[in-house]
TrEMBL record:
Source organism: Aspergillus eucalypticola (strain CBS 122712 / IBT 29274)
SUPFAM superfamilies xrefs: Thiolase-like
Protein name in UniProt: Beta-ketoacyl synthase
Cited PANTHER family: FATTY ACID SYNTHASE (PTHR43775), SYNTHASE, PUTATIVE (JCVI)-RELATED (PTHR43775:SF49)
Gene3D superfamilies: 3.40.47.10
Occurrences of domain Ketosynthase family 3 (KS3) (ranges): 15-154
Coiled coil: none
Alphabetical keyword list: Multifunctional enzyme, Phosphopantetheine, Phosphoprotein, Transferase
Length: 154
């Protein structure tokens, strides 16, 4: 996908044109790349699914009336095919101990950013004017670590 700005419009604006040359993603509904995203859109599918059993014990927290400390919904938009234990820390140049304590969402972000650069054909990206823009949602790890302060580390 590319975005171009014609020269006439460019002359009246102070910003430079950009080009989107690579994509990578993790979305509910087992969407992990632009092809699966496009299929989901064409097939008019939703990423809505039951709460994965390994996420939390739904029956212990579910209340259809929404009492405090419970959840009303039995479904949501989950990355049900993402296994955060499969993170390959050898790819990234950080201390292994630091990478082991990362929020799983940050691990996913590192992997998806790397995939995006690969998808764009960028192999020599250090020191170049390349941006990888990301959007994320959720703070599960932050909430869990607020309760487990011994686990957080330095």
């Amino acid at each position: 996908m590319g975005i171009t700005v014609d020269e006439q419009n460019h002359a009246s604006r102070s910003h430079e044109p950009i080009a989107i040359v690579g994509m990578a993603m993790r979305l509910p509904g087992r969407v992990n790349d632009s092809e699966s995203f496009w299929r989901m859109l064409i097939e008019k599918r939703s990423g809505l699914c039951d709460v994965p059993k390994d996420r939390y014990h739904l029956d212990a927290f579910h209340d259809p009336h929404g009492k405090p400390g419970t959840v009303r919904m039995r479904q949501g938009y989950f990355l049900d095919d993402a296994d955060v234990r499969q993170f390959d820390s050898n790819v990234f140049s950080s201390l292994k101990k630091e990478l082991e304590r990362l929020d799983p969402q940050q691990c996913q972000l590192l992997e998806v950013s790397y995939e995006c650069l690969e998808n764009a054909g960028c192999t020599l990206w250090r020191g170049r004017k390349i941006g990888c823009y990301a959007g994320v949602f959720g703070q599960d790890w932050l909430d869990l670590n607020a309760k487990e302060t011994q686990h957080m580390g330095a």
